[in-house]
C-alpha cells in the first residue's frame, strides 16, 4: 500500500469536497480510498470486506474501533463525504470515490478539538474504546445542530454504545462544547458557570475539588 | 512556587493521563497491535453444549497454504486444565465437551481469512449427549456427573440466631435473575511472541497479569519467569477479563510456529469466550414484628455456574453472606449452592454475586412494607444496620456504613415533575420508534438499599506491590516513576496513582511504567480493590522514598535524626521542596536528588479476615460500601415498555480522591444495573446462547439512561489509605432492584424475574421456546439446591399474578 497526500484539507466535518476524481479504481481488487486526506491504495482486500476491515487490517488505521461489526455500537463511526456512517456497514469498495474521515482526520483545531477537549475535561473518557466513535458522532451532530437540545443530543448519539461511563459525562461534554461555543440559550446560569471553568487552560489538568 | 500543596494531588478532579491519546485515536488497545510477520489466530468452538469428543482431524487444515499451526488438547505440554480458583477447565476440550462454545482447537495462519478456512477444514467427531441445563436438577441423587470433580462447586449454609423463631408478619417468594454479560466494548485480544530463551511474551488486555502468568506457565509447562506479560490497552472489563480466555491458546500457537501471533475475538466469540454473571434462582422468607422490625430472614440461592468453576465458589460466598442485605436481623438461615451445568461458564461481573441477592432482598423488603402497611423507606430506615451490629456471619460491622443515612438522603432528593399529557418522543416509554400514547403511561417510584463487600474475602492474604523511583529528568526536573502491575481497564488507576505520588512526594511530573510482570503482583482489578490496595502500595512506596529523601537532607544539613522521625518530625515535603519547620530549612527536591535517585518497593496488605466455619460463621469481609438508589419510571401499559425517568443515588464513598472519576464510576455502575433491570440477558436454549451479538443482546444507550442525581457520603474508612472505599460496584447492586421496584409500583405486578420484559408487564403471548425460569427453589426445610420440588401455580414470569 502507498500513501500520498490528497487534497491537503484540514478535514473538518463541514467539508464535503470530494477527491473522487483522483481515486478511480483501476480495476480488479485494487482500488483507492481517500482516508483522512490521503489517497491510499488498497491491494489484496477481499471484495466483500467492510470499510472497517480495510481501514484497520489493510491500511492499519486503528483509530477506527471494531466492537460489533453489525452497525450496533458506533465504535467504527466515520464521516463519508461529511455524512456519519458506521464503517462496518459499508463495503470498502463502495467507498471508492468518497472522502473517508476518521477521528484522526477530524483535525487538531476547531470543533473537533473542542469536542476532544471537553470529553477529557468532563470525564467522558474511561476505557476510551467508544471515544473515537463518539468524537466523530458528536462533531457531526454539533456541525449540523450546534444548539441541539437534550432530546436531540440523546437521539443523535443513541447509535453509540459506551459501556463504562453511563453517558452522564458524555452528555456533559456535549453541553460544555455547546456552552463554550456560545450556542446554548442565554439565561442558563449553571452552564455559563461551567463555561468559565472549562475556559481556563490548566497545565496539570486539575479541575475543581467539587466534581459532584 | 507559592502554594504548599502540589497541583494535581489527591482530592482533585485530575484528568486521565491517557485521555488525550484515547480521544485522538492514537491509544493502542490490545486489538490494535500489529508487528511485521505476525500470524493471525482463530479458535474452533464446539457447537454442542455436551458431546463426547472423538477424533479431531486437522490434517486437511494443516495442508492449506498459509496455515502455520493447528493446536488441540494433544498439544498442551503442561497441565491440561486451568482456572482462577480450581483448575477444572481444559485448555482445549478433550474427551468431552461441556458447553456450547468450548474451545476445541486453535489455528494460526498468514491472515484471518486463511485461519477461518482452516477452522472449517478441521474435522471433529462429536457424539452429542443430552445436556444438563437445569441448575436445580444437577444435584439430584440420580443426576449424571458432568465432570470428574462433580456438579457442586460449593455449598454454604449460614446459621445465626435461633432456628425457627418467626415474627407474626411473613412474606415469602422466589426470584429469578437472568444471565448478564459484561459486554466490555473492546473484544478480547492479545499479541503473543515467542522469546529466544524459550519463554513467551504477551501483550494482553486482562484484569490480572500475575494470575494469567501463573495459569499460562502451568499449562505451557515452563517456569513462571519465562512467561512475561505486559498490559496492552484494555477497553473495559467489568469482571469479564478476570479469567484466562485466549492467552494460553495464543502462547501455544506462538511457541508452535516460532512467530508472533495476534489472537483476537469478534463480538460473537467474545460473548462465548468469557464467563458471564451467574443466573440465579432464589427463595426468600422474611418475618417481622407487627411494627416492622425484622425477626428472621431465610434465603436459598442457586447460582448456575455453567460448565466450569471460574470464580463460582467466591461469587457464592458473596451472594450468601449478603443475602439478608444491610439490615439488622436477629435470626438468619442463609444457604446457597453454585452448581455445574452444561450452560456457559459464569464468573466475575461487577457486584460479584451481590446484585442477584439484592434483587431478592429488596423485593422482599417492599413486600414486607406492603404487608405491614408501612412506607418502604421507613421500613428500611427502621431496620438498617449500624456499625457495631453483628452480621449473619457473626462478623461485627465496622465503621463507616451509613445505611440509614443513605436511604434517608436518597428519599429526600427532589422528585421529577409528574408525567404530563403533552410529552412526546424520547420522554415517553419506547422512545421515538414506539412512543406510548400519553394517557396510557403509569409512573412508579422504587427504592433499593444494599451493601457490597470491598476487596477479597474469606481469609485471603491479598496484597499489591508497587515500586516508586524519584529521579531527575535530563533537564534536571524531579520526576516520579511509578511501577505497578495494576491493570488499568478504564477505571482510572493511572490517574489516581499520579495523584498519590504528587501528594506524597511534592513532585508534579509523574510517569507510570507499563503494567507488567517485571514488578510484583498488584492483584486483580476487581472487587472494588485497586484504589485501596494498589493505591495503598503506591502510597507506601512513595512514603518510603520520602523518608529516605528527608533522611538524606537531614544528614547533609547535619540535623539530628529525630527531625525525620515520627512523631517529632519537623522536616517535611512541600510542593517541590523539603522544608524544615523549626530549622528554617528549604531545599529544592531537585537539589536533594543531585547525589542520585531514590527508589523503594512496598507491598500493601489489608487487614486479615477469616474463612467461614461449618455454621457459616467468621469474619469474612474486609469492609463494606453502602448505596441507595431511587428510581422513577414511566411504563406504557399497552406495550409494556419502560422509560427510566430519573435515578438518584446516595453512596458511601469514603474519602474521595478524584471527584470526576468517582462520578464516572457511579454513573457507569448505575447504567449497568439499569441494563440488567430492563434489557440485558444472554438467553440460552438447551445450553446454546441464542443472542451473542449486539443486535440481539441489548445494551443501554444514551437514550435509555437519565441523568444521575448523586450524593456522596464521604466518611473516611479508617484502615484504608487516605480513608478510601471502592466505589464501582455498590451502585450496580442497587440500580436494578430500585428500577424493578419502581415498575412494580407503576403496574401493580409482583415481577419476580429480572430483566423485566414487556411480556412481564402486559399479557402478551410468550414464545414457548424461551425459558421462563418456572422452576424455583423453595421450602426452608429442603437441603439447599438438592432435589427441590417446585410449588405449583406460580409463574415467576409474572404473567399471572398481581400484587
Ligand atoms: S463496529 Fe461498526 S457499529 Fe459496531
Ligand atoms: S469509555 Fe469505555 S466504552 Fe465508553
TrEMBL record, chain A:
<dbReference type="InterPro" id="IPR012675">
    <property type="entry name" value="Beta-grasp_dom_sf"/>
</dbReference>
<keyword id="KW-0479">Metal-binding</keyword>
<dbReference type="GO" id="GO:0043885">
    <property type="term" value="F:anaerobic carbon-monoxide dehydrogenase activity"/>
</dbReference>
<dbReference type="InterPro" id="IPR001041">
    <property type="entry name" value="2Fe-2S_ferredoxin-type"/>
</dbReference>
<dbReference type="GO" id="GO:0051537">
    <property type="term" value="F:2 iron, 2 sulfur cluster binding"/>
</dbReference>
<keyword id="KW-0408">Iron</keyword>
<feature type="domain" description="2Fe-2S ferredoxin-type">
    <location>
        <begin position="29"/>
        <end position="106"/>
    </location>
</feature>
<dbReference type="InterPro" id="IPR036884">
    <property type="entry name" value="2Fe-2S-bd_dom_sf"/>
</dbReference>
<dbReference type="Pfam" id="PF00111">
    <property type="entry name" value="Fer2"/>
</dbReference>
<feature type="region of interest" description="Disordered">
    <location>
        <begin position="183"/>
        <end position="212"/>
    </location>
</feature>
<dbReference type="InterPro" id="IPR036010">
    <property type="entry name" value="2Fe-2S_ferredoxin-like_sf"/>
</dbReference>
<keyword id="KW-0001">2Fe-2S</keyword>
<dbReference type="InterPro" id="IPR051452">
    <property type="entry name" value="Diverse_Oxidoreductases"/>
</dbReference>
<feature type="region of interest" description="Disordered">
    <location>
        <begin position="1"/>
        <end position="26"/>
    </location>
</feature>
<keyword id="KW-0411">Iron-sulfur</keyword>
<feature type="compositionally biased region" description="Low complexity">
    <location>
        <begin position="1"/>
        <end position="14"/>
    </location>
</feature>
<keyword id="KW-0560">Oxidoreductase</keyword>
<dbReference type="InterPro" id="IPR002888">
    <property type="entry name" value="2Fe-2S-bd"/>
</dbReference>
<dbReference type="GO" id="GO:0046872">
    <property type="term" value="F:metal ion binding"/>
</dbReference>
<feature type="compositionally biased region" description="Basic and acidic residues">
    <location>
        <begin position="195"/>
        <end position="212"/>
    </location>
</feature>
<dbReference type="Pfam" id="PF01799">
    <property type="entry name" value="Fer2_2"/>
</dbReference>
<protein>
    <submittedName>
        <fullName>Aerobic-type carbon monoxide dehydrogenase, small subunit CoxS/CutS-like protein</fullName>
        <ecNumber>1.2.7.4</ecNumber>
    </submittedName>
</protein>
UniProtKB/TrEMBL annotation, chain B:
<feature type="region of interest" description="Disordered">
    <location>
        <begin position="1"/>
        <end position="22"/>
    </location>
</feature>
<dbReference type="InterPro" id="IPR000674">
    <property type="entry name" value="Ald_Oxase/Xan_DH_a/b"/>
</dbReference>
<feature type="compositionally biased region" description="Gly residues">
    <location>
        <begin position="1"/>
        <end position="11"/>
    </location>
</feature>
<dbReference type="GO" id="GO:0005506">
    <property type="term" value="F:iron ion binding"/>
</dbReference>
<dbReference type="InterPro" id="IPR017609">
    <property type="entry name" value="Xanthine_dehydrogenase_dsu"/>
</dbReference>
<protein>
    <submittedName>
        <fullName>Xanthine dehydrogenase, molybdenum binding subunit apoprotein</fullName>
        <ecNumber>1.17.1.4</ecNumber>
    </submittedName>
</protein>
<dbReference type="GO" id="GO:0004854">
    <property type="term" value="F:xanthine dehydrogenase activity"/>
</dbReference>
<keyword id="KW-0560">Oxidoreductase</keyword>
<dbReference type="InterPro" id="IPR016208">
    <property type="entry name" value="Ald_Oxase/xanthine_DH-like"/>
</dbReference>
<dbReference type="Pfam" id="PF02738">
    <property type="entry name" value="MoCoBD_1"/>
</dbReference>
<feature type="region of interest" description="Disordered">
    <location>
        <begin position="759"/>
        <end position="803"/>
    </location>
</feature>
<dbReference type="InterPro" id="IPR046867">
    <property type="entry name" value="AldOxase/xan_DH_MoCoBD2"/>
</dbReference>
<dbReference type="Pfam" id="PF20256">
    <property type="entry name" value="MoCoBD_2"/>
</dbReference>
<dbReference type="InterPro" id="IPR037165">
    <property type="entry name" value="AldOxase/xan_DH_Mopterin-bd_sf"/>
</dbReference>
<dbReference type="InterPro" id="IPR036856">
    <property type="entry name" value="Ald_Oxase/Xan_DH_a/b_sf"/>
</dbReference>
<feature type="domain" description="Aldehyde oxidase/xanthine dehydrogenase a/b hammerhead">
    <location>
        <begin position="24"/>
        <end position="130"/>
    </location>
</feature>
<dbReference type="Pfam" id="PF01315">
    <property type="entry name" value="Ald_Xan_dh_C"/>
</dbReference>
<dbReference type="InterPro" id="IPR008274">
    <property type="entry name" value="AldOxase/xan_DH_MoCoBD1"/>
</dbReference>
